[in-house]
Amino acid sequence: MRHAKSAWPEGVADRDRPLGPRGLRDAPAAGRFLAESAGRPDLVLCSPARRARGTWELAAAALDGPVPTRLDARVYGADAAELLDVLHGVPDDVGTLLLVGHNPGLEELVLLLAAGTEEAAGEEGTAGADGPARAAGVDAVPPGPDGLLERVRAKFPTSAIAVLTWHGTWTGLGAGGARLADLAVPRGAGRTS
Fold first, then answer.
1. What is the pTM (predicted TM-score) of this model?
2. pLDDT tens readout for residues 96-117
3. Which helix or strand (DSSP H or E) is residue 59 part of?
C-alpha cells in the first residue's frame, strides 16, 4: 500500500511530512477496503515516515483489533530490490503481509513481482489455466485480471493497494513469482477521482 496523499509544509523534512486533507480522507477508505476485500494482515511493515505511519494508523482503525506492526527504516526511500530484500526477511509463519511505503519503490516492486504473469496469459503455448510456464521447480503463477499491470504501469497513486498472491516462502519470492490479483485506489468521502 502506498501512503495516502501528504502535505508539503514549508521547512519540513521529507520524512516528517504529514498527511494532507485528501490523505486524511483516503487513508480510512483504504482501511475499509482492507477490512472488506483484502483481508486482515498478519503483519504490517511500515515506513517510519510520518505520512506512511499516519496512513497505517487511520487505515488500521477500520480493522477488527490491532495488527502486529513494525516500523522498518529500510522501507523509506527503498527501490524494488531493497523492498524485495525486506520481504525476504519476513517470517514464514506470516501468511498475509501489508507493506506500507512509497513510490517509486512500491510500484517497481509490484511490477517486478508480477512481471510477465498478465502478458503470458495471452501468449499461445506459454500459459494455460495454471498461468505462464516456469522453470522446473518453480510454481506456475496464474495470470492476474486483465489490465491490472497496465494500470500499475500507468500510475500507482497515493493510497493505492496492490494485492499480490503466490505460493511459496518469503525467501523464495522473486521476479515474476507473484500474481497481481487486485488493485484498489480507495478514496474517502468527497472524492470522486
1. 0.84
2. 999 999 999 999 999 999 987 6
3. helix 50-60
